Amino acid sequence: MTFFTLIFFYLLFGFVQGFTEPIPISSSGHLVIFQDIFNLKMDDLTFEILVNFASLLAVLVIYRQDIIRLATNGFHFLTKKQNRLAAEREDFMFIVYLLVATVPAGVIGLLFEDQIGNTFSSAKMIGITLIITGFALFIIRNLRGQKADRQLTLKDALIVGLAQSVALIPGISRSGATIVAAMLLGMKQATALRFSFLLYIPISLGTFMLSIGDLLDGRLVELWLPYLVSFVTASVATYFSLKWFMHIMARGNLIYFSLYCFVVGTIAFILL
C-alpha cells in the first residue's frame, strides 16, 4: 500500500467513524462493513482511540453551554449549605443520573468487551444487528414524550444506561439505543438527545483515559500524518453530523434512519 493510499483510507475511515458516531446507524458496524467492502482489516487500536477522542471533542464543543451550566450549578449545590436554588438541585441530580447511567456500560465493557467484539464482528452479524436497530427506531418513530430534564428519575437513568451497554455489540447504535430507551420512557426529544450525548462524554472519556498506555505504545510516531488526517476528519464530521441529527430529532424524522438500517443491514447480511 502506497503512502497516499494509506492517507486515503485513514481519511475515509475517519470520516465514516466521525459521521456515523452521533447518528443512530452504528459507527462500529459501518467500519466493519467498509473494511469488508475494501477487503482491508483496519486492526489499529491507536486509530480507534484517536477517532473516538475526536468525536468526543466535537460533542464537548456542541454541548459546552450545557456542560458549563451543569458543572457550575452542580458545584454551587454541593458547596452551598443553605439557599440552594431549584435549578442547582435539578442540575446536580442530572449529573448524578448521568454517572449512574454510565455504570452498566462501564462494567460490562471492562469485563466482556473483547468477547462481545469477537462474537459479533462479522459483516453478517452486523447486518442482523443493524436490522434490530432499524426495528427499534421504527417503534419510536412517532413518539413525542413529555418528560423534561427535571423530571428524570434514577430508574430512567438505569434503563438508559443498560441500553447503552447493549450498544457494545457492533451494529447496535449507541445513540440509537439510548435515545430509543429514553423515548420509550417518555422523555421529550430534546431531553432524550441531551441525556444521550452528555452520557457519551463520561464513557468516552473513561475509555480514552484507560487507553492512554495503548496510545503511547502504538504507532503514533510512525503514522502521525495518517492519524492526524483521520483525527481532524472525524472531529469535523462528528460536529456537522450531530448538528444535522439534532435538526432531524427536532422534526421527528427518525423513520429515515430506521429505513436506512433495514436496507444496509439486509445488504450486509446477504452480500457480505
From TrEMBL:
The record's keywords, sorted A to Z, are: Antibiotic resistance, Cell membrane, Cell shape, Cell wall biogenesis/degradation, Hydrolase, Membrane, Peptidoglycan synthesis, Transmembrane, Transmembrane helix
Does this entry carry the keyword Disulfide bond?
Answer: no
- Other notes: Bacitracin is thought to be involved in the inhibition of peptidoglycan synthesis by sequestering undecaprenyl diphosphate, thereby reducing the pool of lipid carrier available.
Functionally, this protein is described as follows: Catalyzes the dephosphorylation of undecaprenyl diphosphate (UPP). Confers resistance to bacitracin.
Cross-referenced Pfam families = BacA
**GO cellular component terms, A-Z:** plasma membrane
The chemistry this enzyme catalyses reads:
di-trans,octa-cis-undecaprenyl diphosphate + H2O = di-trans,octa-cis-undecaprenyl phosphate + phosphate + H(+)
Record-listed E.C. numbers: 3.6.1.27
Top-level taxon of the source organism? Bacteria
Record-linked InterPro entries: UppP
Q: What's this protein's family per the entry?
A: Belongs to the UppP family.
First-level EC class: hydrolase
Q: Where are the transmembrane segments?
A: 45-63, 92-112, 124-143, 192-212, 224-242, 254-271
Instruction: Recite the lineage of the species.
Output: Bacteria, Bacillati, Bacillota, Bacilli, Bacillales
Q: What is this protein called?
A: Undecaprenyl-diphosphatase
Q: Name one GO biological process term.
A: cell wall organization
